[in-house]
UniProtKB/TrEMBL annotation:
Cofactor entry: [4Fe-4S] cluster
InterPro entries associated with the record: Aldolase_TIM, Methyltransferase_A, RNA_MTrfase_RlmN, rRNA_lsu_MTrfase_RlmN/Cfr, rSAM, rSAM_sf
Domain Radical SAM core: 19-252
Database matches in SUPFAM superfamilies: Radical SAM enzymes
Keyword terms: 4Fe-4S, Cytoplasm, Iron, Iron-sulfur, Metal-binding, Methyltransferase, rRNA processing, S-adenosyl-L-methionine, Transferase
Domain of life per record: Eukaryota
Subcellular location: Cytoplasm
Name this polypeptide is given: Radical SAM core domain-containing protein
Length: 285
């Protein structure tokens, strides 16, 4: 769904029909994004502006009103569209609280998930001020790789992010964070990476989504093959972790994870590929 905003800017919202009668609406929180994650098409846009709480909520309202008859009742909301939700934390918390309020959209807090690339101070505030679910884009098991593909890691290192989650979740009963892990062939998909994840998430109540990378124009990455994703998943599952494989939906319409938006003439920069990954990326199947 394309929304034309009052100032002429455009955002995208995606409705995702799932199995077992579940339908999810994926809402945007910003026009563009400032995080410049190297695998994300939205990040190429840079940040145009934050969305207001009303603009965020309206996406879910519109989907519920106009699409319920076609795809079924909207049961879940995920803040995983355009933008870094916690970069717009005031409006995102306000919007999320409206979505779960009994006089608002009255979703269960467990059915509303806010995602972040790892803004640590805002993450702490979110966990203290909002009862909705949290998803964290992990996507790498070392600072070297995460510094490259997710530049926010240069400010908030992997160790700090994970230790903050350990400390904050001690006070939240029956609360699990969802780790999202976009698999990039030759970059973060080795068995050694899988083993490191097992160590990294020790002491953090969590679930893990392994996500197939969705290629887009100008992308320097390639998706991990399904067989390798299954092997990666098996390492995690055998260690006792709860892990899911999330295969692409909507990639044929540039509506899948990491494909939203339309970069203009001026785009956020692609960062230099670390030397040791140059050959690995060239050899990707």
């Amino acid at each position: 769904i394309l929304f034309n905003l009052e100032d002429g800017l455009i955002i995208e919202t995606v409705v995702i029909p799932c199995d077992r009668g579940r339908t999810t609406v994926c809402v945007s929180s910003q026009v563009g994004c400032a995080m410049n994650c190297q695998f994300c098409y939205t990040g190429r846009m840079g940040l145009k502006r934050h969305l207001t709480a009303a603009e965020i909520v309206e996406q879910a309202v519109f989907a519920r009103r106009l699409l319920t008859s076609e795809v079924g009742l909207i049961t879940n909301v995920v803040f995983m569209g355009m933008g870094e939700p916690l970069h717009n934390i005031d409006n995102v918390i306000k919007a999320a609280n409206i979505m779960v309020h009994e006089q608002g959209l009255h979703f269960s807090p467990r059915k509303v998930t806010v995602s972040t690339s790892g803004l640590v101070p805002q993450l702490k505030r979110f966990l203290n001020e909002c009862n909705c679910a949290l998803a964290v884009s992990l996507n790498a098991t070392t600072d070297e790789v995460r510094n490259w593909i997710m530049p926010i890691n240069r400010k908030y290192k992997l160790g700090l992010l994970l230790q903050t989650l350990r400390e904050e979740l001690r006070c939240k009963h029956k609360y699990k964070v969802l780790f999202e892990y976009v698999m990039l062939a030759g970059v973060n998909d080795s068995i050694e990476d899988a083993k490191r994840i097992v160590d990294l998430v020790q002491g953090i109540p969590c679930k893990i989504n392994l996500i197939s990378f969705n290629p887009h124009c100008g992308s320097q990455f390639r998706p991990t093959c399904k067989e390798k994703m299954i092997g990666f998943r098996n390492v995690l599952a055998e260690s006792g972790l709860t892990v899911f494989l999330r295969l692409s939906r909507g990639d044929d319409q540039m509506a899948a994870c990491g494909q939203l938006g339309k970069p203009g003439i001026v785009q956020a920069p692609l960062l230099r590929v670390p030397d040791r990954f140059q050959m690995a990326m060239e050899l990707c199947p």
